[in-house]
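Homework help board

Subject: predicted structure for assignment chain

Our instructor gave us this sequence and asked us to write out the predicted structure in token form, then describe one feature. I got the tokens but I'm not sure how to describe them. Can anyone check?
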Amino acid sequence: MLSIATMRLITALGVFTAVTLLAQPTPEPKTDVSNKALITKSTPAAPKAGNDIAALRKIADDYYAWRNENFPVGSSDAGLHTWDNRLTDYSAPKIAERDQHVRKLLDQVRAVPATNWPKDDRIDWLLFRSQLENSDFGSRVLQSEKTDPQLYIGECSNGIFSLLKKEYDAPRKRALAATERLRQMPAMLIQGERNLQKPVKLFAQLAIASARAIDPLFNDSLMTLARDLAPDEHDALVKARDAALAAIHSFADRLEKRLPSMVDFAPMGTANYNYYLKHVLLLPLDAEQVAMLGRAELARYRALESLLPDPALADPDPARSKSIPPDQASFLAAYESREQEMISFLKEHKLVTIPDYLGRFEIRQLPEAFKPTSPGGFMNPPGVYDKDPSGFFFIPTYNPQSKNFYIRAAIEDPRPILGHEGIPGHFMQLSIANHLTNEIRRQHADGVFVEGWALYGEEMLMRTGLYPENSAAQGQILRLSRYRSARIGVDVNLHTGKWSFAQAVQYFMEAGGLDREAAEGEAAGAASSPTQKISYIVGKWQIMNLLGRYRDKAGADFRLGQFHDDLIKNGSLPLSIVEWLLLDDPASIESVMR
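My token output:
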């Protein structure tokens, strides 16, 4: 899963703004061009050489360069280490300047006369426009600088974490960069307090929890880089670290005092939700249709659990495991060791082509600072600029008596989660996407596709025979899809204003079958990252629909492995676009753009 923590960390997904919400509806942009004409089946005339499409690509390249410099922590995480000594400037003038820049670009791109461009160029126009729509939506509607304290705590934690997670340079150089970032944190947090004009209580509580869990990251993990520092450099690092921690704790203390005056939660409302589905995700569904899909899939997987000879198999139980790891190191090693078994199965059954350039996939312990909104851990794939092809999945701290769903599942059989996070899931798919030569498509990481592919892979491996019938792994697959279905109801109803946070937690427990700890974390993640939780089931449903149509078109020539290769070779694009590419059918994207 790519949690809220990862969505803030991974710039390969194009996420440089945190997510919180305001309640005013978003009108359709008056400057938008007629889109339906851009996606007709007729063969258009080619654009003049070196003219419009070349100009669009230049605008896109310039935008990515501007974005990378303006959000240096995101750049570090994506593997671009040019600005490792900086934090984002959250002063009010700079925020306004960035918002105005994106809006100006979006107006310019909307006005591009792309009607007569070839199909692939029109697709790139649509993709780049949706990327700008995403950023503009953040500034107009989400306005996280004003409402979400997690943005500023995340800048602190990610600012250090992005320097630690990979050995991209000598420890001394990374430590010196960390010192500079630490020095900037107190002033950045003061900027944050000034900006937080209407903080949301739920987000403040999550920020407080993260702030009070951040010490091990700074005191333990960070100091592993300090061994080669000169004495004065070491002293400077320690002084900057202590000042940063004091500022973070004070920020949390002052937030806590303000909690009684804060609004509990501020949903975006149905109009904004539908705008995001259409203009950012290019999804041919509205909020009510998405909610209906969630209810249908929830009913199906809840029933499939009941049809197991032993329905209790859907609830992971370490007691059924042949061996329980004695400690954290053994647990992580046992978890990771099952990956080769899955790779062999994929190759033997020719289910997908695994590229030679894939790096190492590792399992690591989840930093405590990220636990409040990521109770199940999160995936950290190679960044879009990363020279290091390795990736890793963060699993919560090991405890054989834990009630946490993900810990229990990993002890009993880690393969379903491994298939989602590693190979053939996120790690492999995003690694392939990073190797695209088309920069607009390489930069586009549609969450519905990313999570849809990973969830589809869970059931695909079960259906193709990796897990025995009526096994704990099979039961786990059904439970994973069941609670992903419940996520849809939570996401839609929270952000359209129909449910409270307490109702969301209760729904995860009753309908999704989760324990309270996992349910509270899931609900917090849903509240913090609107539409992320719908991506799993919606994407899986779109892929299943595409698979059936692809097979009908291929006829006797159909091969499942070829479908998988064709599906993921285009990067992480909206499935309405992928359908156009694979079937030459623009019907879905036409329904979006009407």
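Reply (TA_rk): Your tokens look well-formed. For the description, you could write something like this. The mean pLDDT is 89. That's the kind of observation they're looking for.
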